[in-house]
Amino acid sequence: MPLPPHLPVSGRTRLFAVLGDPIAQAKAPALLNPLFAASGVDAVLVPVHAPADRLDEIVRGLKAVANLDGLLITVPHKLAMCGHADELSDAAALLGSTNALRREPDGRWYGDNFDGAGFVRGLTAAGHPPAGLRVALAGAGGAGLAIAAALLTEGAAALTVTDPDRTRVDALLHRLGPHWPGRVTTAPRPPADTDLAVNATPLGLTPTDPLPFDPTPLAPGTLVADIIMTPAETPLLRTATTLGLPTHPGLPMLTEQLPLYRTFFRLPACPPPNSRAPADRRAHSHR
User: Fold this and answer.
1) How many CB atoms within 10 Å of residue 115?
2) Measured distance CA(226)–CA(213) in Å, rounded
3) Of 142, 151, 197, 264, which shows the fewest CB atoms inside 10 Å?
């Protein structure tokens, strides 16, 4: 059943923002705003284009907005935004990366990361549980870190990381290696025995981007996944399809985070379809 349209914005509407650079590709507003409406919450999520060189001043300004209850984070800010949290979940602290922050009742900001959980939930729902898989991951940034940890937590047999930024690769190995000894390595390209090859880089957002890796040498049956949501069929997925390889798109990673966001932002459950919306539609995040 389709979710209802958003409630009318008023002077009591609570604010949430999603930060990115670029931001035009962000799918979060189209998914979260109907969720607010379905929950009877008077809130709206707006996109904010936050250039990397102005991120700090933008975040300081947003945090000063008294009716701002939460932030979602997309590329390339997931690592940097940890510095704007007063407290991090164990998962976000392990990763050094956050994709969601909420304002606590005392005004402090609490950060968590749901990228990895969303990716694994989407993968599993599509019939590809990661247990026992040999994974090749392109991208050691914020999203790549989260996905790597989630795949290893769910029993991936081995994970090989590819990224031209050696500093990022070393940081990922340093953070995750001690928790999964012998299961995390690096290589210039996906190994031949890969079961699952994942793009966790921004490559593919624009038509002129090079492929994050060449899927041609991958063995038949290797699943190729991309976390980019716009376009739905990225050049990597299109190339993999022409090679006869199965593919997994980016949108499930976000849609599978919706129930996690509901809990994180303390949203009420959606009322039954025929029930009346509650009279008090203010956000239930903490106010």
Assistant:
1) 29
2) 11
3) 264
ω into 231 cis (within 30 of 0): yes
Active-site amino acid positions: 78
Three-state SS at 159? strand
**What contacts 235, CB < 8 A, 6 or more positions away?**
204, 207, 209, 211
pTM: 0.85
Paired residues of 121 in beta bridges: none
| Amino acid found at 284 | H
What domains does the chain contain, in order, with CATH numbers? 14-114+257-264 (3.40.50.10860), 116-253 (3.40.50.720)
**Amino acid letter at 163?**
D
CA 179 → CA 116, 140, 154, 174, distances in Å? Answer: 16, 17, 13, 10
Exposed (0-12), middle (13-18) or buried (19+): which is 132, by Cβ within 10 Å? exposed
How far is Cα 52 from Cα 21, in angstroms, rounded to an integer? 7
Q: Which amino acid is at 253?
A: M
How far apart CA 187 and CA 21 sit, in angstroms, is 28
Profile the chain (287 residues) by mean pLDDT over runs of 10 residues: 62 97 93 91 97 98 98 94 97 94 97 97 97 98 94 98 95 95 96 96 93 97 96 96 98 94 89 47 41
For 107, left (φ over 0), alpha (ψ -120 to 50), or beta? left
One-letter amino acid of 168: R
Q: Is the dihedral of CA 55, 176, 146, 113 positive or negative?
A: negative
